[in-house]
């Protein structure tokens, strides 16, 4: 199967950890639809670690937790499908999952078949408890082969956190997205760390196998499994802007049954989502700046540019860039008509450069049209 744009949806882990059950999944599915998130493209609901019993059955098949999922998984998948949503599930290439549930090592084909039978559409595949003598790429290829032959279209979401030079082999495994970073936490420091880690991995991002910067913490406000200190709404907006600019899969991690209007407005900004989902999927590149204050850009399918001016530092920044740093020099006789996608403000670059003030932890995200002078 080919996955043309970065998958979007909601994942249980950030807020609920292993405390998941059929009721939570159905309520969250309802919330995806009722809040309009599904209409914005968030259509995968991914059940992360903690959904199974601790033992396989007599046929070596995974068994859904009898208390959490008394009716099994298939009816949950049916419920999601009836709402136009898709079901994601979770397993791991090692002896057990990160939270110590049975994992798929040496059960790859039977597990892929089981997921297909249940109506699963997406598999997040972790890297914990990997046998030391088994190269990760072989284990991921094995599951990739099992999924590609299971008789159902299942998105293969690798989650090896960039370990063992994942970028060198992930595209050989059939994965459709791959975790290019360690785990996210709901802190500003974590957002900064993951952003900085992403920069050298830009060239490995591409059509059909997207760099996954991890699930969003937007809206968690310090609550839940990876809650910790929480972030401000400005920081959440910056986080969302960077993920969209880089074309990361967008998997919401907050409790979408209880979102504030401010948080919904961040997650549902259609112009920002359109940057993330741009069909050309060109590589994002650094225009100028350093690790903390930078301008990153991406050429979009219709000829516009997405331009992010990001201030991760703790002090205000007078941000600027020269159009020549994007390749548009004086011989081109072009400037940029810029629309900032959070404020809606429209402005034009001067002939050779653009300048704007960006507050600490804030970011300006533009869609820029290339126009004749
Ligand atoms: C790892 C993954 C997380 C989550 C947990 C579940 O840490 O990176 O995203 O899936 O395992 O245990």
Structure, explained:
With 373 residues, the chain is α/β, with parallel strands linked by helices. The protein is 25% helix and 22% strand. It contains 10 helices and 16 strands. The chain has helices at residues 13-16, 22-34, 74-82, 108-118, 136-148, 166-169, 188-198, 233-246, 261-267, 270-276, and strands at 8-11, 44-46, 86-92, 122-126, 155-158, 177-179, 210-212, 250-252, 285-289, 293-299, 305-311, 317-322, 334-340, 346-348, 353-358, 363-372. It has an 8-stranded parallel beta sheet. It has a 6-stranded antiparallel beta sheet with strand order 9-10-11-16-13-14, covered by helices on one side. A two-stranded antiparallel ribbon has the order 12-15. Strand 5 (155-158), helix 6 and strand 6 form a beta-alpha-beta unit. It is globular and about 70 Å long. Bound molecules: alpha-D-galactopyranose. Alpha-D-galactopyranose (GLA) binds at residues 13, 48-49, 97-99, 126, 159, 161, 183. Alpha-D-galactopyranose is lined by residues 13, 48-49, 97-99, 126, 159, 161, 183.
Cross-sheet strand order for the largest sheet: 7-6-5-4-3-2-1-8
Order of helices and strands: EHHEHEHEHEHEHEHEHHEEEEEEEE
Mean of residue pLDDT values: 97
Unreliable residue stretches: none
Total beta-strand segments: 16
Rounded Rg? 21 Å
Helix percent band? 10-25%
Q: Roughly what fraction of the amino acids lie in strands?
A: 15-25%
Report the biggest beta sheet as strand number plus sense, adding barrel if it closes. 8 strands, parallel
User: Helical region count?
Assistant: 10
Task: Note the gap between the termini.
Answer: 44 Å
Shape: globular
Ligand kinds: alpha-D-galactopyranose
Provide the structure class. Answer: alpha/beta
């Amino acid at each position: 199967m080919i996955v043309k744009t970065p998958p979007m949806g909601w994942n249980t882990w950030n807020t609920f950890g292993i405390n998941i059950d059929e009721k939570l999944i159905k309520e969250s599915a309802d919330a995806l639809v009722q809040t309009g998130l599904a209409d914005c493209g968030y259509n995968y609901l991914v059940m992360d670690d903690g959904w199974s019993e601790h033992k396989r059955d007599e046929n070596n098949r995974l068994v859904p937790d009898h208390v959490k999922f008394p009716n099994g998984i298939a009816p949950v998948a049916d419920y999601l499908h009836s709402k136009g949503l898709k079901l994601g599930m979770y397993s791991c290439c090692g002896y057990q999952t990160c939270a110590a549930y049975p994992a798929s090592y040496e059960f790859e084909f039977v597990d892929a078949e089981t997921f297909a039978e249940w109506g699963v559409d997406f598999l997040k595949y972790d890297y914990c408890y990997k046998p030391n003598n088994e190269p990760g790429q072989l284990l991921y290829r094995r599951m990739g082969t099992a999924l590609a032959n299971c008789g159902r279209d299942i998105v293969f979401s690798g989650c090896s956190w960039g370990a063992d030079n994942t970028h060198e082999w992930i595209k050989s495994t059939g994965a459709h997205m791959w975790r290019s970073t360690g785990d996210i936490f709901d802190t500003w420091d974590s957002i900064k760390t993951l952003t900085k880690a992403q920069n050298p991995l830009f060239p490995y991002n591409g059509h059909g196998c997207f760099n996954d910067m991890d699930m969003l913490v937007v809206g968690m406000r310090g609550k839940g499994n990876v809650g910790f200190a929480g972030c401000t709404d400005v920081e959440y907006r910056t986080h969302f802007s960077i993920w969209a600019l880089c074309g990361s899969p967008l998997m919401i991690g907050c409790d979408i049954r209880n979102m504030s209007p401010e948080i919904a407005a961040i997650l549902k900004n259609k112009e920002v989502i359109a940057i993330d989902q741009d069909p050309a999927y060109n590589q994002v590149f650094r225009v100028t700046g350093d690790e903390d204050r930078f301008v990153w850009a991406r050429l979009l399918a219709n000829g516009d540019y997405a331009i992010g001016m990001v201030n991760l530092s703790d002090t205000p920044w007078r941000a600027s860039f020269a159009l020549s740093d994007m390749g548009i020099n004086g011989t081109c006789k072009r400037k940029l008509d810029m629309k900032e996608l959070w404020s809606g403000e429209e402005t034009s670059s001067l002939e050779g450069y653009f300048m704007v003030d960006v507050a600490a932890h804030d970011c300006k995200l533009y869609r820029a049209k290339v126009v004749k002078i």
